[in-house]
Design goal:
Elements (H helix, E strand, L loop, with lengths): L6 H6 L17 H9 L9 H11 L16 E5 L11 H5 L3 E5 L8 H4 L5 E4 L12 E4 L4 H11 L22 E3 L2 H11 L9 H12 L2 E5 L27 H13 L3 E4 L3
Parallel strand pairs: 1-2, 1-6, 2-3, 3-4, 4-5, 6-7
Helix pairs in contact: 2-7, 3-6, 7-8
Bound molecules: cytidine-5'-monophosphate (C5P).
Amino acid sequence: MGFLDDDWFMYRYNPTIPALLNRKNSVLPGDTNKWWRGLQPSKLRVNYTEVVDQLFSLFPDEDHYSDAGPDRCRTCAVVGNSGNLLRSNYGQLIDSHDLVIRINKGPTKGYEKDVGFKTTHRVLYPESAVDLDDNTHLVLFPFKIRDMQWLISTVTTRHITRTYTQVKSSIKANKNKVMILHPAFIKYAYEKWLQKNGKYPSTGFITLVFALHVCDQVNLFGFGATSNGTWHHYFDKSHTHYKGGPHKGDIENITMHQLEHRNKISIYKGY
Ligand code: C5P
């Protein structure tokens, strides 16, 4: 991607921000810590350093995706959960990407023709957790420190059954494929890519920014309304709103379309 020729993009894009957490990059600058802790409902005094220590005694402590360079061409499909995937026939196209990143509960079973079979990565947090295949990377988005504690608990004591709501005490997932998004990356997506609109970015939007950092070509599926203007999941009928709440869906949308306009991503609108 020709990153260097675009002021709008360069103003937002920070190539040195760590995307995934490891022991070495885990120290949080004071302002990051303050912002991240501000997202959390509970002000319990949890020792972040101890939690990180425990995390990386259980899960891989690696410098993931630090191989960017002109010879790398990693293609990624970021698959949101919009109802516009139904009748899209995108299945094969989605599966043709090196990485297929799915989000939260979005299933493949029963929807293969439209969403594909393959899941290399699944982004989740305790409240949205589902069981994963052995070859899928779990990518935890830690909106709060409790989410990290939950991940630890799922493979050890299994004592965490509630956050602000009931959560699974364990899930099926390959321990050796677990990745944890860096808390500073959530702040970065908010400050740089949303220009501090809303309270914090939606999971789908953070996933898109994540893909901009670890992929060389990013194609977006399952984002936005259907062609007749309804907002729902492809796998259920509940309406999903992105205009109110903590997320500024309109700003996220404008930013996505700017990215497309600047040839940084492609958006597949579906049906
Ligand atoms: O609803 P959920 O948060 O699981 O969806 C994951 C992501 O998919 C959202 O964050 C959003 O970016 C995208 N989505 C969408 N339109 C919908 C449903 C989901 O853009 N109707």
